[in-house]
Amino acid sequence: MKRHPIILSAYCHNLFSYCLHRNSSRARFTFVRFSSSSSFGLPGTRYFPDYSPKKPSIKDSELVHHISTVIKQRRCEPFRRILKPFESKFRMDHLIWVLMDIKNDYGLVLNLFDWSCIRRDPSVEARCILIQIAVAAKDLKMAQKLFHEFWTKPNIDSHVSVSQFLEKLIYTYKDWGSDPYVFDIFFQALIENGRIHDARKLFDKMLNYGVVLSLDSCNLFLSRLSKDIDGPKMSLKVFSEFSEVGIEWNTVSYNILIHTLCQARNVREAHGLLLQMELRGCIPDAISYSTVINGYCNQGELQSVLKVVENMQHKGLKPNAFTFNSIILLLCETGKLADAEKVLREMISQGIFPDNAVYTTLIDGFGKIGNVTSVFRMYDEMRSRNIIPDFITYTALICSLCQNGKVGEADKLFHEMLNLGLKPDEFTYTTLIDGYCKAGEIKTAFSLHNEMIQMGLIPNVVTYTALVDGLCKKGEIDTANELLHEMCEKGLVLNIYTWNALLNGLCKSGNLMQAVKLMKDMEVAGIRPDAFTYTTLMDAYCKTGEMAMAHQLLHEMLQRGVKPTVVTFNVLMNGFCMAGMIEDGQKLLNWMLEKNIMPNSTTYNSLIKQHCIRNDMRAATEIYRGMSHQGVGPDENTYNILIRGHCKARNMKEAWFLHKEMDEKGCDLTVETYNALIKGFIKRKKHIEARELFEEMRKKELSIDKETYSTFADMNYDEGNIDLTLVLCDEAVENCFVNNTKSGRT
Fold first, then answer.
1. What is d(CA 166, CA 202) in angstroms, rounded to the nearest whole number?
2. pLDDT at res. 24
3. Residue-wise over 512-530: b if at least 16 C-beta within 10 A, else e?
4. Could you tell me if 267 and 261 are in contact, meaning their C-beta atoms sit under 8 angstroms apart?
């Protein structure tokens, strides 16, 4: 199901936050510190300046002294009350002067700052001073809040640039806090507000003062770079440049860079970086390997995935939930459902329990290959583990049932989904509408279409294409055309599938001339016919016996670079054989083999059937052997055609051998083949074999004709088995007369 690459969304979403905060409590203060007198070993290292604010006048000094004394002596009283007498005279300069007097009393500092902010916005200098005091007091939340307020509130000094703010922060650093982490918080605030360029300038500026920012901050910077268009290029550049100035990258750092490269589909480069980690003194963890595995999974490189998993296990690392999820998703997408389930079992055996997304992926995968039994086995297992299915799970179940013709069961699940309060989306409705259209229940499909609109959901081109296809298959071409006009009026652009649905409808209803015209209209509308378009039209020509036109279409396809499918060749092959042009059919097969176009069993069956009709079993057997020589296995139809051919030619030994071979492979005989075998054996007086086949038919409740019943009733009567004779007579009356009467036949 196309939407269920969400199976790894949690992994992608949480990787950065997990990496950055995994060791945050321990690593917060592990950055390199340098005092004002220290040197980073680089020429031109600067010292932090001494703070020298504007000096107060005698009058201002007296006011500052009064305010400081009042707030110290009456600290338990509300500041609005005790500072009421000073409001008219209080300026921002007074705030800084008072802060100088009370900076060691953090509670008073916050109360005074809050009081001053009620009256007017603080100056950049005052804000930087409070940030310095907050960091020194280890109140990092307050420092972060002051930084973020400055960049997010439009009324606060919006004209001040980042460089001007930084200069004030440097200016106030030495005398108001001297904790280098203040620059980390500023750096992180810039990153979180999207100011990546300014953050890089800050990093470089701090190097001039001998300060290298913390590893956590650098990891945050690295992770944010990954979201930009030039993420991989810039991340690699920063990774190299920061290393040169003293940043010792850790496993988290490498994981971020590996993830960035994988996101950009540079998985080989990411894998190379993973292999280099240990050489650079950094040990990869489960996340390192899982990220590369996920990258290879997204590119469908299963062999590379298996190699990385093997290396991971060799290092003693256990795959985590994300590793298993990635592999299961890839195996499901490539149709390797048995292997996907093995991975699921391995996952559970290691104590890692799958979630809703994993089971939904498996349900969707089994549905696509038509294995409905496994679909519901997965669903039952999911429920037994108390994993609640969501609307995506239900949609996968509904899709699986519809694709396998079980639209009634799909409808039950749809209503179960509604009763649980889950809201279906456009995809869910479209899936069910398509299911009803394929089942020929057009009225129900349109009813769902109307219900969908009432729910506020907008039908898309896929929804309308399903309806057009359903109408065409019912022969309602005019109604389908009306629907196409409605689509155009709604601004929906018809796609190739819509045109093909209408073309198929015209061909099925015998409007071949209109179908040809429609194909020309497609090209005028800018839609290039595909293999399905040509094959549909070719099939119509074949069924009307116009083989020259069908053959011409094949040449046109090849000239225009449209690659025919094996279905295209099978249509043409069947056309040749139905028209009695068996030699042309043989030439087509030889041409396919020369061009390395692999035929399938259907291709060969057309030729075998025609030779059987001509009673040329030698030629039919040669085709059958040639089929095996090319590695194409016979299907049920192959066996049934050959057995009937041999029966007709009275080669009962060959027919019986093929029947036994068929039985060993689990293939079933058709009613016609059973009848042919039975009649052939009776003519050859092989009553034991005939009776065995007759009993098989009875056991399977197959439709036996009157002539066969009559033959075995007479046979049992002659043998004196009156009871069985009467039973067979009753069955013949029930199956050949009563049932035929009920169905309107005589």
1. 8
2. 40
3. bebbbebbeebeeeebebb
4. yes
Give CA–CA dist 65/98, Å, rounded. Answer: 8
Residue 632 near residue 599, CB atoms below 8 Å: yes
Cα 648 to Cα 540, 607, 613, distances in angstroms: 31, 17, 9
**Treating both helix axes as pointing N-terminal to C-terminal, what angle do 124-136 and 106-119 enclose, rounded to 10 degrees?**
160
pTM: 0.62
Q: What are phi and psi of 458, to 5 degrees?
A: -100, 115
- Cα–Cα dist 28/91, whole Å: 37
Written as one letter, the residue type at 639 is Y
pLDDT band per the 50, 70, 90 thresholds, residue 55: confident
Domains of the chain, by residue range, sit at: 43-48+121-211, 52-120, 703-746
Tens digit of each residue's pLDDT (9 = 90 or more) over 448-460: 999 999 989 988 9
Q: Say how far apart CA 289 and CA 267 lie, in whole Å.
A: 12
Residue 744 has pLDDT above 60, yes or no: no
8 Å CB contact between 257 and 222: yes
Asked if 101 and 64 touch (Cβ cutoff 8 Å), the reply is yes
Q: Whose CA is closest to 433, among 444, 417, 422?
A: 444
Sign of the dihedral through C-alpha 358, 359, 365, 366: positive
Token reading at 493 = 């652009």
Per residue in 388-403, is it b (16+ CB within 10 Å) or e — as a string?
Answer: ebebbbbbbbbbbbbb
Measured distance CA(647)–CA(650) in Å, rounded: 5
**Backbone torsions φ then ψ of 535, nearest 5 degrees:** -65, -40
Residue among 468, 461, 462 nearest 442 (CA): 468
**The dihedral formed by the CA atoms of 382, 387, 393 and 396, expressed in degrees to the nearest 10:** -10
Q: Which of 124, 123, 145 is nearest to 134 (CA)?
A: 145
Tell me, rounded to whole angstroms, the distance of Cα 720 from its chain centroid: 69
Please, are residues 432 and 395 in contact by the beta-carbon 8 Å criterion?
no
More confident residue, 446 or 158: 446
Percent of the chain that is helix, strand, coil (3-state, to 5): 70, 0, 30
DSSP secondary structure of 647-683: HHTT-HHHHHHHHHHHHHTT----HHHHHHHHHHHHH
For 212, the 3-state DSSP assignment is coil
Rg (CA), the chain: 40
Q: Cα(631)–Cα(593) distance, rounded to whole angstroms? A: 12
* 65-118 per-position pLDDT tens digit: 998 898 888 888 888 888 888 888 888 888 889 898 898 899 999 988 888 888
Contacts of 372 (CB under 8 A, 6+ apart): 366, 400, 401, 404, 406
Could you give the 3-state DSSP secondary structure of residue 529? coil
Find the helix or strand (DSSP H, E) in which 208 lies. helix 196-208
Compute φ and ψ for 670, nearest 5 degrees.
-80, 165
The candidate with the shortest Cα–Cα distance to 389, out of 427, 355, 356, is 356
Helix (H, G, I), strand (E, B) or coil at 404: coil
Half-sphere exposure of 431 (CA within 13 A, CB side): 28
The Cα 332–Cα 329 span in angstroms is 5
Eight-state DSSP code of residue 87: G
Q: How far apart are CA 359 and CA 345, in angstroms?
A: 12
Q: Give the relative orientation of helices 251-263 and 215-225 as an angle to the nearest 10 degrees.
A: 0
d(CA 591, CA 581): 16
- C-beta contacts of 565-570 below 8 A and 24+ residues apart: 565/531, 565/535, 566/597, 566/598, 566/599, 566/600, 566/602, 566/603, 567/531, 567/535, 568/531, 568/534, 568/535, 568/538, 569/597, 569/599, 569/603, 570/600, 570/602, 570/603, 570/606
